[in-house]
Design goal:
The protein has about 240 residues and is an all-alpha fold. Helix content is about 80%, strand content about 0%. It has twelve helices and no strands. The radius of gyration is 23 Å and the shape is globular.
């Protein structure tokens, strides 16, 4: 879980980085066009100011979202980490959120926290609290936050179903969410791992072997994930050879 300070520092770093980029770009334009310094200064300051106003809008939105989703439970997390008391407070606070947009962010974040602690049964219970109709309403959104919500809903929900043995629910979720998960396979090892696990548990060993091979080829897996992927890849290949 990240703090409000982290949000502020991220925006400050982004603003500084892009401001430097704007200055370098405007300087190149000045050199190519032989523009006077006064024009360079006006253009640079104006562009940086416009960019600053644009970024301020999103900064305020993210601060409000952080307060709504994390503000009430972050002090407990900072003091206790993901303790039983933290999850108790988190569950109680979640029940007070009545805006579907905020509650969707909240419950999916809490789902991820449960999965971090390997509490798969609680993760599945939390997943059932997410308003699926809201997710379906934003499935084709281009917004960064909405795209992340859709990915987390299908990937982490599918993972929770698989790890708790609810394979029929997993199958329905896979059929609905695969077009959106497929878009993230190449850049998100968690999505690749979930899809590989799905095919493995469904005994679709050819597809499972291919996905586990791709997962191992990324070369950036935690030790436990690498061990599990290696064992399942060997088993899936053996099953394919026996058919």
């Amino acid at each position: 879980m990240f703090s409000r300070r982290t949000v502020c520092l991220a925006y400050m770093a982004c603003y500084i980085f892009f401001s430097i980029g704007i200055i370098v770009f405007e300087l190149l334009v000045k050199v190519v066009r032989h523009s006077p310094w006064e024009e360079f200064q006006r253009s640079t300051i104006g562009t940086i100011a416009i960019f600053g106003v644009w970024m301020l809008f999103f900064f305020v939105k993210d601060l409000i979202r952080w307060q709504q989703v994390n503000g009430k439970i972050y002090p407990v997390f900072k003091r206790e980490g993901m303790s039983p008391h933290f999850f108790q407070v988190a569950e109680e606070y979640g029940k007070t959120i009545d805006r579907v947009k905020i509650s969707t962010h909240y419950w999916l974040n809490l789902l991820c926290y449960y999965q971090t602690m390997n509490q798969d049964d609680m993760a599945l219970q939390t997943f059932t609290k997410v308003d699926a109709s809201y997710i379906h309403s934003i499935k084709n959104s281009r917004g960064r936050w909405n795209r992340r919500l859709v990915k987390v809903f299908f990937n982490n929900g599918l993972s929770a179903c698989l790890k708790t043995g609810h394979l029929d629910d997993a199958k329905r979720l896979y059929q609905d969410g695969f077009p959106y998960l497929k878009k993230n396979m190449a850049k998100d090892i968690a999505v690749l791992d979930t899809l590989a696990e799905y095919h493995f548990l469904m005994r679709e060993y050819k597809d499972a072997a291919e996905l586990y091979r791709k997962l191992l080829e990324t070369g950036r897996l935690p030790m436990n994930m690498m061990k599990n992927a290696t064992e399942r890849l060997d088993y899936a290949r053996q099953q394919c050879m026996e058919k």
